[in-house]
Amino acid sequence: MPAYNAGIYIEATIRSILDQTYPNIEIIIVNDGSTDATESVIKNLSVGNNITLINGNRAGQSASENLAFQHSRGEFIKFFDADDLLSENSIEVQVKRLLDAPNSIAVGQVKRFYNDDPASALHEPLATWQDMGPMDWLLVDNGKGLGMMQAGMFLIPRHLLLKAGLWNKDLSQINDFEFFPRVILQSERLLFTEDAKVFYRSGVANSLSSNLSKPKLQSAFQSLESTTALLLKHEDSDRVRSVLFFFWDMWKYSFYLDDMDLYKKAVIQMEQLGNYTNVFPRQHSLLKKIIGWKNEKKIKKVLGR
Prior knowledge:
The protein has 305 residues and is of the alpha/beta class. The chain has helices at residues 10-18, 38-46, 61-70, 90-99, 134-140, 158-164, 175-184, 214-234, 238-255, 260-273, 286-291, 293-302, and strands at residues 2-3, 27-31, 51-55, 76-77, 85-86, 105-113, 154-157, 190-201.
């Protein structure tokens, strides 16, 4: 678990792991240079519990994930965010599924919630809520593909991580988009564990996904570029190309005006994939429908939004 200024949430997160019905758990937390109460909260909870605290030096999420892994001893690994929650039998049911399938990955549900209220999380069944092959799992996601890959939903055999390679420490934005496909494609099967639930806290101010600076846009481009090459290497098909086209189409909007060099490169990527402009339904604001997305982006930039 990487943690940076997570003092307001991390106690509830750690307790949700300490309360697991499966007993053989070690918790390794990298406090990545927090300036709030994160360290003291972890230290208080460490007493009498199998918690290892490692103090980092603002190396970033990916480097913190790798450092925590290097201190781990378990046969199964779960990466977990410092502000999320885990249902109490999650690890038990996922371990049980993997004991007879050592080359598979267990995948649970992700329940998104807002306003610090896990009870408000919606029940949103997905097409991936079944046992599936790795490429099928990556591509189906209710027709869109490469959907939610939230770290806490997976329980991963250690040997698959060693084979796939760890997190790319040079990436700060959508690093999970680059990491998890690499790991998933090393597995034989994705095993759905319905009772394993991650309660994913959304709407947190100053989260990693907010504030798309130029380095973060560069990271996003690099993640998209790497995963594009990876998937096409495994399967160069129409379904793969259409899914990848969709994500380049989404991100070109973020690149436009804020990094025009990346925008032009994204357009080239899309041209190389093919013409899939109308493959997926799009939600457009009224303003975008009237004046077009480029003009909408210009107006938002002027307004500082």
